[in-house]
Design a protein that fits this description.
Helix content: 25-40%
Bound molecules: S-adenosylmethionine
CATH class: Alpha Beta
Strand content: 15-25%
Structural class: alpha/beta
Order of helices and strands: EHEHEHEHEHEHE
Largest sheet: 7 strands, mixed
Length: 211
């Protein structure tokens, strides 16, 4: 698969001054989304960063799927807005996805649209105990999502952080959510972080789960 469809000269300017760590709980931005104008399956990417992963999926699926890119860091969300301006099957939301997930996704599901995949790729690990609640996959998120998400929706969690991976498995066990580990990226689509970590010689941990 060709990973980067947009040449560097065509890319929006990458924001230079972005804080590395943002407290997601501090972002009170609220969004909702009534859905796309067609009923194609939706793929969600939480923490899209500079959009390389969605670009790879758009290259792979074309207009047969719709995509929702979520990015908490506003300068990157703005960058993504520009990057996907011409793609009618891609929408971008800033803010904390944990806060907005149901309002962004459920209206489409209620209309009978399949939310096919939700990707959580290389999320910020938040290792300190007092910061763990900031993780995208946390007990509150799982318990709230379990109330409404369709069992057809596959969540994909990928990371280079083994401790985060094991902690997340423990959490899924506690919530009685079954997961399956797997080896290779789906459709060969690698994220920016994944490519960087593999180049540094790190292992990648991957699992999928459904509610
Ligand atoms: C380590 S980077 C990984 C980026 C990309 N997924 C990849 O694999 O290349 C984590 C990304 O998630 C974003 N992020 C962190 N917490 C978030 C949240 N609560 N909602 C949406 N995005 C979030 C960060 O701003 C950052 O862009």
């Amino acid at each position: 698969m060709k990973q980067t469809m947009t040449s560097d000269s065509q890319r929006p300017k990458v924001p230079k001054r972005v804080r590395n760590h943002v407290n997601p709980l501090g972002d009170l931005q609220e969004h909702s989304f009534e859905g796309f104008t067609n009923s194609n399956p939706i793929i969600v990417d939480i923490g899209s960063y500079r959009g390389e992963f969605i670009e790879a999926l758009v290259a792979h699926f074309g207009i047969d799927k719709n995509f929702i890119a979520c990015e908490i860091r506003k300068p990157y969300a703005k960058y993504l807005d520009e990057l996907f301006l011409k793609d009618e099957n891609v929408v971008v939301f800033d803010g904390d996805t944990g806060r907005n997930f149901e309002a962004i996704i459920k209206p489409s599901q209620d209309k009978g649209v399949l939310i096919q995949y939700v990707f959580i790729n290389f999320p910020d690990p938040w290792f300190k105990d007092r910061h763990k609640k900031r993780r995208v996959i946390n007990p509150k998120f799982l318990q709230a999502t379990a109330q409404w998400i369709d069992s057809e929706t596959t969540f994909v969690f990928q990371t280079d952080q083994e401790q985060l991976f094991r902690d997340t498995q423990e959490l899924l066990d506690q919530e009685n959510i079954k997961y399956k580990e797997f080896d290779k990226p789906l459709w060969g689509a690698q994220t920016y972080w994944e490519i960087m970590k593999i180049e540094e010689g790190d292992s990648i941990y991957r699992m999928s789960f459904t509610f």
